[in-house]
Please model this.
Amino acid sequence: MDLTIDAMWLFLAIFLITAIIIKVANARVTSDPGCTRSPPPMLNIIALLKLLPTLCTKGPEVTMTYLYNKFGSVFTISFLWKRISFLVGPEVSGLFFQGSESEVSQGNTFEFTVPMFGLENGFAVDYSTRIQEIHFFIDALRPSQLRSHVDPMLREVEMMLLTLLSLKRATLSPYVIVNIKQSMYSGKSVYISYRSTTIMKSTQLQDYFAKWGEEGVVDLKDELNQILMLISSQCLLGNEVREKLFGEIYTLFSGIEGGVNLVSFMLPYFPVPANHRRDKARIRLIEIVYDIMRSRKTCGRVEQDVLQKLMDSRYKDGHRTTEAAVAGMIIALIFAGKHTSSIVSTWTGACLLTHTKFLDVVVEEQREIMRKYKDKIDYNVLSKMETLHSSIKEAGRMHPATLGLIRQTQKNITVRTKEGTEYGIPKGDTLVNLVMLTSKLSHIYKDPEVYDPYRFRPGREEDKVGGKFSYAIFGGGSHVCPGEAYAFLQIKIIWSHLLRNFELKLTSPFPKTDWSKFMLEPKGKVLVNYKRRHLESN
Model:
């Protein structure tokens, strides 16, 4: 981990300043005297400071694992007047995930998302409205809807992987229209839009491919990030963005992502450059979504995409979603889906290419599916890719995109450990469910530090045997991620195509986790050597 002592002291200084501001603005939160259960083991500020060297040199996961091993599945850190209670394991997670809003809520934890997505959706609106919006997402991403997204996803993967693996090295800079003969699946010509100041002819592209040949090295993390942005644009926003505005959309979302940082988390409206870029990007993205919606309404055009589903949604009182609400919801959905999927898909590649035993099994599964279904890829065929699915799930277990999920207690609560000890956590505590640690508990997962996709297959199913919330990297209960199935669908389409059409080898060291990022992604470049092939079913 590259965090320095200076950086940690800066963090503590910012935290202290923020705490003082909150202290002045709000009355001090005190524990309800009605909490009669014994409190969890507690660390005070002195004990916390002693852990700083470990935090700086080995990172948050090692630090939290040390505290778990010392204190057990429930412990509290007290910093000034702020109490944070940590939960590890499914046995103490039931109320965290399934408690009512009057018991455990998300509170104002995610206030930093308001300037990212706007004032008429998400955490800018009341709980009842927010829950209805989540149901809009669930309805738009239900399996019957996901089936219609497979073909657009396939087209994007085909076009991107046939071009970006080589086109990335070209000095192209605003729109190139590239005609590629012979789409891998359809056998037809396909077109993609790429930022450039000139139009590249197909013969120029053919010369370019001849120059670079059939093999090379790419940064897998960067390529998957771009592919998933294209998929999100096509499936969630529609053809208008994909065909005309993708370059601008990609840049604007980079501005939104840049606003997810430590300062923005604690002080979302603090006038730093990253927050300024975030605000400008949000304003422009909302304008683009407004233009698309108004164009559809003016022309009477109805599309089969998520944007249209959100436009047509109605709240319980009968009124339609507003333009501002739809724009915010679609931006939030693209951000969440693309970012998490990019992280999980990159870790999937790094894990599979490092563990050739499982890579061979996944490739053989693709051969078997090709024997049965030829080159056909649809929702049903993707559901047959069980080993690939388990490989993705195992990468997510070992490398979740977050250390923990956050809630706030609205009343005194009681949690019971697997040993039977009961602890009382008072009203006002911040709760952090350490899903990263839960996913590596040895009493749930055999050899939890070992990459083993078979642990999720019939006969073992360690996550189910371990009990509800043993696998919670996508959340759980009423706040479970509505896009989980969509994420797996995207990642399976991408990796199915990669494994069928390329021989791949990881050439950089296995990546470490980048703890400097709010969403935990692989650190640095993930360099992969590729060589084109067409996988034979025999």
Confidence is low (pLDDT under 50) at residues 1-31, 164-213. Residues 323-354 form the longest helix (32 residues). Residues 5-104+400-465 form one domain. DSSP finds 23 helices and 15 strands in the chain.
